[in-house]
């Protein structure tokens, strides 16, 4: 898989990491990291690399271990403008902390309790789908997770659905592919978005074809069963929050441009870049923003996604019927008929 909107967890962590490294090995660690960043960072062409390297080595001049050298990485990520990137070293993660803390405690708490896809039939025959993030960082569960999402949606099939509410408020990210393939019965076939590089050039289209998700011509999900027959022209209201991040934002972006579709809620977390993982050594790896996300019409999202209908607060996951964002979605769907 070429891209992954996740913090890479592919490394085998060694408990011997805490032993002292030589000065030379620390220098090699920094050299390899900076070389990798210079070759792959989405903002690489706008960076004064001699100046940045000089500053990095000055800040890390007394570092005798990888952990001591790692303390300079938040500064590196800030200088290259990558708040989605991170260095993973052993059990620690080093990144640039940029965003103001998200204060909606109801949504933050819901992230902990709503960890599985769930559906409800709301009054007026409106189908409600809550789609959380996942932890499939290695991409091993794409087909299984896709089936789970589709099976949940299928339970509402035959209920004379008048419209859909897709709730991404607790979707913190993970692997994007099962989210998109799982929603194929509602999104329909065709291009639903793309990755765009720093030069505004296409770096891979997200395509649904016969219910499977492709990155350009590369098939990512490999399901063979027939898609459930669902009216793909029904209104779709997508709920987002300040927790909606990374592949959760990708999923929201994939719906933009679909007919009779609207985003409702709060602006998203702002992790709308495609990340790729790079191994530095057996202890450490970098996750770097290498592309931006774009919707099916080519609009690029370099920061956050803004809802069309702004509704702040009023979240109620224990009684969806009293949830202000859900109520707003229901009202919007009714107006589409």
Quick recap of the structure?
The protein has 337 residues and is of the alpha+beta class.
What would your notes on this structure say?
This protein has 337 residues and is α+β, with helices and mostly antiparallel strands. It folds into 2 domains: 116 residues; 197 residues, 2-enoyl-CoA Hydratase, Chain A, domain 1 (Alpha-Beta Complex), CATH 3.90.226. It is built from 10 helices and 15 strands. Strands 1, 2, 6, 7, 8, 9, 12, 13 and 14 form a 9-stranded antiparallel β-sheet that branches. A 6-stranded mixed β-sheet has the order 3-4-5-10-11-15, sandwiched between helices. Helix 6 runs parallel beside helix 7. It is elongated and about 70 Å long. About 5% of the residues have low confidence.
Layout of strands and helices, then pairs:
Elements: H1 23-40, H2 49-59, H3 66-70, H4 73-79, E1 86-89, E2 92-94, H5 105-113, E3 118-122, E4 126-130, H6 142-154, E5 163-167, H7 176-182, H8 184-187, E6 190-196, E7 202-209, E8 212-215, E9 218-219, E10 236-240, H9 247-255, E11 261-265, E12 273-279, E13 284-295, E14 300-301, E15 309-310, H10 324-335
Parallel strand pairs: 4-5, 5-10, 10-11, 11-15
Antiparallel strand pairs: 1-2, 1-13, 3-4, 6-7, 6-13, 7-8, 8-9, 12-13, 13-14
Features:
elongated, 2-enoyl-CoA Hydratase, Chain A, domain 1, 10 helices, single chain, 23% strand, alpha+beta, nine-stranded antiparallel beta sheet, 337 residues
CATH architecture of the largest domain: Alpha-Beta Complex
Number of helices: 10
Domain count: 2
Computed over alpha carbons, the radius of gyration is 21 Å
The CATH superfamily of the largest domain is known as: 2-enoyl-CoA Hydratase, Chain A, domain 1
Beta-strand residue fraction: 15-25%
What top-tier CATH class of the largest domain fits best? Alpha Beta
Q: What string, H for helix and E for strand, traces the elements in order?
A: HHHHEEHEEHEHHEEEEEHEEEEEH
The computed structural class is alpha+beta
Low-confidence stretches: 4-20
CATH topology heading of the largest domain: 2-enoyl-CoA Hydratase, Chain A, domain 1
Sheet of most strands: 9 strands, antiparallel
Q: Tell me the overall shape.
A: elongated
How many angstroms does the end-to-end distance come to?
Answer: 41 Å
Quick one: how many beta strands? 15
């Amino acid at each position: 898989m070429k891209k992954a909107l996740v913090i890479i967890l592919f490394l085998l962590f060694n408990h011997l990491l805490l032993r002292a490294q030589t000065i030379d090995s620390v220098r090699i660690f920094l050299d390899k990291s900076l070389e990798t960043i210079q070759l792959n960072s989405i903002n690489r062409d706008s960076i004064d690399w001699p100046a940045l390297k000089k500053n990095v080595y000055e800040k890390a001049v007394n570092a005798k271990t990888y952990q001591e050298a790692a303390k300079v990485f938040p500064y590196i990520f800030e200088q290259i403008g990558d708040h989605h990137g991170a260095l993973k070293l052993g059990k620690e993660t080093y990144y640039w902390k940029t965003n103001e803390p998200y204060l909606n405690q109801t949504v933050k708490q819901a992230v902990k309790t709503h960890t599985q896809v769930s559906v409800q039939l709301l009054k007026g025959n409106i189908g409600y789908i809550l789609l959380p993030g996942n932890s499939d960082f290695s991409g091993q569960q794409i087909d299984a997770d896709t089936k789970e999402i589709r099976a949940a949606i299928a339970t509402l099939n035959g209920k004379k659905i008048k419209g859909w509410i897709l709730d991404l408020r607790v979707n913190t990210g993970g692997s994007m592919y099962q989210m998109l393939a799982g929603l194929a019965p509602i999104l329909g076939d065709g291009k639903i978005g793309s990755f765009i590089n720093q030069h505004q050039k296409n770096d891979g289209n997200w395509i649904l074809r016969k219910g499977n998700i492709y990155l350009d011509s590369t098939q990512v999900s490999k399901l063979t069963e027939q898609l459930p027959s669902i009216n793909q022209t029904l209104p779709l209201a997508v709920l987002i929050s300040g927790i909606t991040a990374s592949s959760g934002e990708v999923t929201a972006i994939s719906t933009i441009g679909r007919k009779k579709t609207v985003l409702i809620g709060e602006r998203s977390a702002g992790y709308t870049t495609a990340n790729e993982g790079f191994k530095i050594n057996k202890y450490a790896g970098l996750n770097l923003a290498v592309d931006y996300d774009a919707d099916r019409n080519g609009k690029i999202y370099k920061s956050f996604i803004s809802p069309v209908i702004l509704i702040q607060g009023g979240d109620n996951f224990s009684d969806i019927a009293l949830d202000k964002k859900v109520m707003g979605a229901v009202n919007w769907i009714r107006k589409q008929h």
